[in-house]
Amino acid sequence: MPCSLSCLDRVRILILVANVTSFVTNGSRLETGWTLAKGTIELLAEIHIMLVKNLQDLAKEVTKYKEDLIKARKEAKQQDIIDAVNLMQTTTTCLQK
Length: 97
Fold this sequence. Notes:
- The protein is mainly alpha-helical.
- The protein has helices at about 5-25, 30-95.
- It is rod-shaped.
């Protein structure tokens, strides 16, 4: 399965994080700040992935709801036509008597 756009974004972010991590040496003054920033970036990437997945699921649900609504309206319209034809037949029969 090919990676989605958000998957590719996450891969790019992780590559950048790995590159910066390689420049920060153990015991450096930047290490503590970088560790915090790295954790925050990784958490943000996970949140982004979950958000995109939830939006995709929501889009699927909306599409399904739309299709169900169109089907229900079509069935209701057909029932109205059937009721009108039956009423006309009944009226015609009553007028003939």
